[in-house]
Amino acid sequence: MKLTEPLKVGIIGGVLGFAISATLNYFIFPVPLNSVDNAIGNGMSGLMTGLMTGFVGLTMYMKNSRKIAEQGIVKGEIDHE
């Protein structure tokens, strides 16, 4: 695996995390009245951001795994027992 792949996934995850958290905090969880509301709003946006970036990371992993498996089958490198 090249070093650029994890960097690319990390940058995509960071940008998605920023965009989702900022959007949720601005539109869904407006300026909190107290620190408890602030903590709940940040926790909810963090949860949603984590779920979204985890989904993106999983789909990228599945895509790369499928490519590797197809290349292995074409090259005959996978042992069939």
Give structural notes.
- With 81 residues, the protein is an all-alpha fold.
- The protein has a domain of 49 residues.
- Helix content is 81%, strand content 0%.
- The longest helix is centred in the C-terminal third of the chain and has 41 residues.
- The chain starts with a helix and ends in a 6-residue tail after the last helix.
- The model has no long low-confidence stretch (mean pLDDT 77).
CA-CA gap between termini: 27 Å
Helix content: over 70%
Structure class: mainly alpha
Poorly predicted ranges:
none
Q: Which overall shape is indicated by the principal axes computed on the Cα atoms?
A: elongated
**Total beta strand runs:** 0
Helix count? 2
Average predicted confidence as pLDDT: 77
Biggest sheet overview = none
Question: What Rg do the Cα atoms give?
Answer: 19 Å
Order of helices and strands: HH
User: Which range does the strand content fall in?
Assistant: under 5%
Secondary structure elements and pairings:
Elements: H1 4-28, H2 35-75
Helix pairs in contact: 1-2
Kindly list the characteristics that best describe this protein.
single chain, 81 residues, mainly alpha, 2 helices, 81% helix
